[in-house]
Structure formats: C-alpha cells, structure tokens
Specification:
alpha/beta; TIM Barrel; 3 domains; nine-stranded parallel β-sheet; two-stranded antiparallel ribbon; 20 helices; about 10% strand
Amino acid sequence: MYNPSSGIAEEFIAHEEIMASIQYAEENKGNRKLIESLLDRAGDCKGLTHREALTLLECQEPDLVERMFCLAREIKQKFYGNRIVMFAPLYLSNYCVNGCTYCPYHVKNKHIARKKLTQEEIRREVIALQNMGHKRLALETGEDPVNNPIEYVLESIKTIYGIQHKNGAIRRVNVNIAATTQENYQKLKEAGIGTYILFQETYHRENYERLHPAGPKHDYAWHTEAMDRAMKGGIDDVGIGVLFGLNHYRYDFTGLLMHAEHLETMFGVGPHTISVPRIRNADDIDAAAFEDAISDELFARIVAVIRIAVPYTGMIISTRESRATREKVLKLGVSQISGGSRTSVGGYAEEEPEEESSAQFDVSDTRTLDQVVEWLLDLKMIPSFCTACYREGRTGDRFMKLVKSGQIANCCQPNALMTLKEYLTDYASEDTRRKGESLIEEELKRVASDRIRQRTEENLKEIEHGTRDFRF
C-alpha cells in the first residue's frame, strides 16, 4: 500500500511500511558496516530515507552516536550557519470544540479560562511584542467554527500587518490553525501568511483517533492530508511536526520523515520547517500520564538524525524546552527558537492572573527575549530577525533550490546581521548591545563577497542613523 505519490493518508503514511522499517532498524541497529556507510553517504547532504534514518536513530554505539552528532553539526553549519531565527507565538483564542486528551483546550475542560482577543486587544499584544523586538509571529487558535472562523483569523492577520509602532513592525505572520479546506488555504495565502504550520501529533491512526475522541480533529485522513490541500491552495511553505510522547517515538519519527518524503515527491518541495515539541504539563494535563515520553538523550539524537535525514528543512524548538535542552540541540540542527513566549491568550501587554490562566502548556524557558538574545550571543550564534526570503518571494521551490545549493547563505548571513543591528539599536540592554556589536564585527569578516560585505557595512551605518528594513 505504501505510495509516497498518493494523496491518500494511509498510503503515503502506510502502517505496514512503518512497522517494516521499525523491524529493519531493530535488526540492523548493531550493523556497524551499514551504519558507517549511511553516515558516509549522508555526508553528501542529500538526506536519507525514513528507513535509513530510523536505523541511524536506533544505533546506540557511543562512537557512532558521536559521529552522528558531528555530522549533524556539519550539515547544520553548511545550510544554516550559526544563525538562529527568532519568533514568538501569539494565541488569539482558546475556544475549541475538539476533545484532544493531551491539550487543556479540549471541549470538556470547564475550568480553564476561555478567552478570545478582540482586534484592539490584538493590537495591544502586537505592540508589546514589537516593543520586545519581535518581527515574526506564529498565530495560534483552538478549533471552533463559531468563535474562531477563518474570517476572524484573516481579520487578525490584517490587523497585525497594519500595526507600526515606533521602529517596530511584524514582517512575517506564520499560522498554526486547524486543518481546513483548500479554499480557506487560498484565503490565508492571499492574506500574506508566511508558513502554514500543523502538527500531526501522532501518525499512528488508531492512537490518533483515541487521543482525539471528539470533534473535527478526530478525522485522521482530513488532518493528515491537510498539507496537500494547503499546497494546492497556494501555500508553498508548510511546517510539520509530531508531539513526542503521545505515541512510541519510532513510529512517529518514521511517519514524520515519510510525510516529508511525500511532500517532496508530490510537490517538489519538502517541509519548510519541522517542529519537535514534547508533551508538557498543562492546566488539567499530567505529562507523566503519557508513558511514551522520551529522554533528553534520545531527544538530542532525534534532532540530530532529522537534520541528517532532511538537511534542507528549518527546525523549530519552543519554550516547552529548558535552557539546557535548547542549548544542547541548537548546534545539532535547530534553526528557529521562540523567545519571551506566552502560551496564554494574551499576556504580552499585561501579565495574566494565575487564577485566570488560559495557557496551553507550561513554559520551561521563562527568560525574556533580551536574555535569550544575549545567551545566543554568548554561544557565538547570530540571533536573526530576518524575514527577507518571504518578502522577496524566495519561498517554496525557489527557497529550497537556494538552500540545497548552499547559495542562500549569501543572503541570510548579511540579512541576519542587519536585523540583529536593528534589535541592538532599538531594544537591547547595554550588555546585549555590546556583545552584539562585537559579534557583528567578527561575522562581517566571514561574508565571502566583497561587494555584499561593503553594502552590509553601509547599511549597518544607515541603521544607526535611523533607516530600517534593509535586505538582500
């Protein structure tokens, strides 16, 4: 039944193929000759199949695991350098008609505070995010056709893009809402969204249906085939992910990579991003009740092998993870992180009272955006607020061609430095500003093109004099 060219969920995510891959990986996890040959071949940065990647993941020989980590770091450096893109989530509403057993927004939860932001409240939240320095948001809502119709999301996007406050502006709005129709995806595209993000949660159909006992999300095929509808609707940047801990990691890891292969086969463009969230405590959710939770060590291996298997994709890690965990996986593959996040409906403009909590999950990394930026600078990484590719039309296959050829770095490095300069000038604390200026000076030396380096230096001076939004 397995057919990556099929548009039918149970054919491009075929249970039999996943089980056969798990058996193959189990039989070969100690096959040093095979593991070494996979690592040798993966060095060409063209990726691995889902079965090959799972075989790597299952290998636990210390020297081979370390070799995997080294290769993941090399691939990350080649495609994304030491740039880390910054973003923040913005929860518009937590009204939801689904019965998801791992999410406090489920319809049976009668004691969580239910909230929906008005357009004026959205405006206040966005100004607060702009005052932090954010340029990129990920919109989040529960699924509720009455309280959160597509018209509300579209109006909210228009409001967000229309807000200019001092030197602040949101330049890219990514959207994480429930699976919808091709027509609605076309509307989101016309509204100017960046990436459409939807987590599968788990690819195991039986467990998926058990975890989603009620509501539209119960329909496994509708949910799993959503990215096909999104891309047919004109959205050429999509982001996938699973919630590790809901199901056995081997199954979902394999399904995740099969989904990436399907998108590449069907549309010539794999996922723009892959997210790797883990189950966390929330209002009435006890993460300890989920027996498939994964360790920090296994989590690091998962990140590394995803980077090896799908070298071109961006990888996202949120404030679900602690500072220590985020630091460990940054160099192994992660290219985007959130900072200063709130997972409640509102909470940026004014802190939410504890007794009125509307949060989706507990935040592990509670640092401010400036503290996260300073931390990245201490790690010799470039906090990037760049949205240039999206606004220059470098999306979908155009973006992927540049990434796979390695040419994207010619744009990304100077754009990252210029957006960092904006942040340092407008928002940073004195210590962060000092460290950032030093990093920019060092990184300018690494810009390969004399012409681009000269233009970047000129633009950096113009930013000091008040001009904003330079980009290559």
